[in-house]
Amino acid sequence: MLKRIQGLANKAFTHLRLLRDDPETFGRNVLQYTQPQLFESRLVDVLSCPQHHLHVDPDRPPALNVMQAGLGSAGMTGGPNTIVLLAALAAETGLTVRIVTHSPGATTDFSWFASHVSSLLGRPMPPTLEVVSAADSDHPATVGKRDLWLATHWTTAQAVKPILDLMHRRWFLYLIQDFEPGFYPWSSNYALSLETYQMPHRAIVNERFLADYLVERRAGLYAEAGFGAQHAIAFDPAVDRRVFYPPTQSSPGSKRRLLFYARPTNPRNLFGLGLQALRAAVRNGVFSGDWEFLSIGSRGSLPVLDLGSGLQLRPEPWAGYSAYADLLRTADLLLCPMLSPHTSYPVLEMAACGGTVVTCSYGPKSAAALAALSPDILGVPPTSQGLLDGLAAAAQLAGKPKQDRLQLPASWDDVLPPIVDWVVHNVNGVDWPFGGG
Question: Which of 14, 76, 396, 427 fits a 20 to 30 Å CA distance from 116?
Answer without folding.
Answer: 427
